[in-house]
Design a protein that fits this description.
alpha/beta; Aspartate Aminotransferase, domain 2; 2 domains; 7-stranded mixed β-sheet; globular; binds pyridoxal-5'-phosphate
Length: 422
């Protein structure tokens, strides 16, 4: 029992200490009610991109709240939603011509799956199977859990999860197994869509793969008519070094999911973009072909205004230079670890750096994850290792000095918990 009625996400209340109350946030920093400062090196669970409370986003939220807070989005529209959709299409290119709003990453993926299934149904073709990658994570709703990796996180719900065709993760040197499995999955024309996290599988352990593999997966889908869904909920908005991870492979998906960074991490909002072909398959005087999806807060005006301000920041501030600077610092730090036997699996994708700490006891439920988390907290850092995988995903406003603190803390953690430590 705790003193609070709040039930926290992914939290075992019997084992974890009381939640830390945060009273303020600014830039890369969080401040507790008692005034302790924490460096937010995971962007508050992968959402905050330009730092907490970026002035332009705060201003846009305040201004919009003064005009229109919420309105039904069926039969009605508003300026922030129209502008955001236009600006997204202008930025991402005409192949993704339509923008469907929702309010979380999971929902944006559910929408993508429904679009894909609706596309085939409305075209009168029986394609219902979803192909997904080993170690994938696409959210925590029943549908997205079905497409994600199975394990301790979802074993209780297993009876409700639908089957997907699982393709092996493209480990370096074993990419052909992935591509061959995908070809086989697409061969009989029953696959509705491939759903992938481009270049980087986040919750699956910050696993990276080469742009070439993403491009080849896209080509296999195109050749068999299988829809290609890119889940860029985490990788979008600069995390991997480019605006989208797909950009590095020169790939345009049929359906694209964006959420987390879309408002700069200030408010919940998500979009699912799709090709004209998918929209057109639902465009009919036959009402049964309507895309039947909505959530109460679809295209909330305040969230859309925050997202427009986020795009203004991308257009007018040196975001790409900030990202490149973080990537450079990460690369320098990681280079120094390559000969260090206490680390393995050293990897980087743009602003995200990850490594596995070599300890006796590996795996997510092994005690080292929580121990590392507490260790970093005691050093004034918010880091949330996935088992023995330590990763950094800072907001783009982070300074060289702040990154230096995190690197130093990782070295101290290795001295304390790494193989051979006393
Ligand atoms: C976080 C995440 C989701 C789910 O987003 P929510 O906003 O938490 O529902 C989906 N896909 C990927 C790749 C994610 O990282």
């Amino acid at each position: 029992m705790t003193g609070s009625p709040v039930w926290h996400p992914f939290t075992q209340h019997a084992l974890q200490p009381a939640a830390i109350e945060i009273a303020r946030g600014e830039g890369a920093w969080l401040e507790t009610r008692e005034g302790t400062r924490l460096l937010d090196m995971i962007s508050s669970w992968w959402v905050v991109t330009h730092g907490h409370r970026h002035p332009r986003i705060v201003r846009a939220i305040k201004d919009q709240a003064d005009r229109l807070d919420q309105v039904i989005f069926a039969g009605f529209t508003h300026a922030p939603a129209e502008e955001l959709a236009r600006r997204l299409v202008a930025r991402l290119g005409p192949a993704l011509a339509h923008v469907f709003y929702s309010d979380s990453g999971s929902t944006s993926v559910e929408v993508a799956l429904k679009m894909a299934l609706g596309f085939w149904k409305n075209r009168g073709e029986r394609r219902t199977r979803i192909v997904a990658l080993e170690h994938a994570y696409h959210g925590d709703t029943i549908g997205t859990m079905s497409t994600g990796a199975r394990g301790v996180f979802n074993s209780a719900y297993e009876p409700m999860l639908f089957d997907v065709v699982r393709v092996p993760f493209p480990h370096e040197g074993r990419e052909d197994a992935t591509l061959d499995a995908l070809k086989a999955a697409c061969a009989d024309g029953s696959a509705a869509a491939l759903l992938v996290e481009p270049l980087l599988l986040g919750a699956g352990g910050m696993l990276t793969y080469a742009p070439r593999v993403l491009r080849e997966m896209r080509e296999i889908c195109a050749a068999s008519g299988t829809l290609f869904i890119a889940d860029e909920v985490m990788t979008g908005f600069g995390r991997t070094g480019t605006f989208l991870a797909c950009d590095q492979a020169g790939v345009t998906p049929d359906i694209l999911c964006l959420a987390k960074g879309i408002t700069g991490g200030s408010l919940p909002l998500a979009v699912t973009l799709c090709s004209a072909e998918i929209f057109d398959a639902h465009y009919s005087t036959d009402r049964s072909k309507t895309f039947f999806h909505s959530s109460s807060y679809t295209a909330n005006p305040i969230a859309c205004a925050a997202a427009v301000a986020n795009l203004d920041i991308w257009d007018e501030e040196p975001v790409a230079a900030r990202i490149a600077e973080i990537a450079r610092e990460h690369a320098l730090f990681l280079e120094g670890l390559r000969m260090d036997a206490r680390f393995s699996g050293i990897r980087q994708c743009g602003t995200i750096a990850a490594l596995d700490l070599c300890v006796a006891d590996e795996g997510y439920l092994a005690g080292v994850g929580p121990a590392l988390y507490e260790f970093f907290l005691s050093r004034g850092l918010l880091l949330r290792p996935l088992g023995n995988t330590i990763y950094l995903m800072p907001p783009f406003c982070v300074t060289k000095d702040e990154l230096g603190r995190a690197y130093e803390a990782i070295m101290d953690a290795a001295a304390t918990f790494g193989r051979g430590a006393r």
